[in-house]
UniProtKB/TrEMBL annotation:
Name used for this protein in its record: Stage IV sporulation protein FB
GO function term, MF aspect, one: ATP binding
Organism: Edaphobacillus lindanitolerans
Record localization: Membrane
Transmembrane segments: 50-75, 117-137, 143-161, 193-214
GO cellular component term, pick one: membrane
């Protein structure tokens, strides 16, 4: 029965397109995976929207940009994960997205405010460190690496959900969260519409803008559920 359950679990993870630390452990002879928080595995996956996003970059002939962007996104998200681990917070899943990523933390709103801000700041801090390293140490493709870090850093500091700047603002001012979702929808839709006039070169920005728009639409539709969870468990 235990063998059957393990096979069924492995099949579920494979069909979902995730990378599971528990699966890696089983295939490597039962060794304890590095990324394990409170004895639960961390699942890392690429969001499906990354496929057209990266294809759009490749279609414009910027394959080197694709490699730098993907590497930078991984570093950015590693900053969030390290910050979560330093606070002792369990992370269930990490999803790489065009603007960095999303980490799934159960009942994130119940964490102390300083821990939530620390976790949110982890990504921009990691990007900032990479930016300083790229400026201080000459490497092949240095101008491209610096440009990508600047764009990623400035993008994530925008007060727009679900970017890090918007998340930090929602943590500091929880009363404006739903107004912030609406303003984020307007901003991302306007940015995407403006980018349409600069196709095909602006194709990645079109994907990014409308991805942010639909993310906010999803959060808006789930707001009643979030309110119910906060009433049930208490709100920090």
């Amino acid at each position: 029965m235990a063998v059957a359950a393990a096979k069924r679990r492995r099949g579920e993870l494979s069909s979902a397109g995730t990378i599971s630390a528990s699966r890696a452990s089983a295939e490597s002879g039962g060794k304890r995976p590095f990324w394990r928080i409170r004895d639960r595995s961390l699942h890392i996956r690429l969001h499906p929207v990354m496929i057209p996003f990266l294809l759009a970059i490749i279609a414009t002939g910027n394959v080197s940009v694709y490699a730098v962007i993907l590497g930078s996104l991984l570093v950015h998200e590693a900053g969030h994960l390290i910050a979560a681990r330093l606070t002792g917070t369990r992370v269930q899943r990490c999803t790489i997205t065009p603007y960095g990523g999303e980490i799934d933390i159960p009942l994130f709103s119940r964490l102390p405010q300083k821990d939530r801000l620390f976790i949110v700041a982890g990504g921009p801090v990691a990007t900032g460190i990479l930016l300083l390293l790229a400026i201080g140490f000459p490497v092949p493709g240095q101008p491209l690496i610096i440009s990508v870090q600047l764009v990623l850093l400035l993008l994530n500091l925008l007060p727009v959900l679900p970017l890090d700047g918007g998340r930090a603002l929602a943590i500091l001012l929880p009363g404006i969260r739903y107004s912030l979702i609406l303003s984020s929808m307007v901003f991302s839709a306007a940015a995407g519409a403006a980018a349409l006039f600069h196709l095909p070169g602006a194709a990645p920005y079109v994907f990014l803008s409308f991805f942010l728009f639909f993310q906010n639409v999803r959060h808006w539709r789930l707001r009643k559920y979030e309110q119910a969870v906060e009433r049930l468990h208490g709100k920090y």
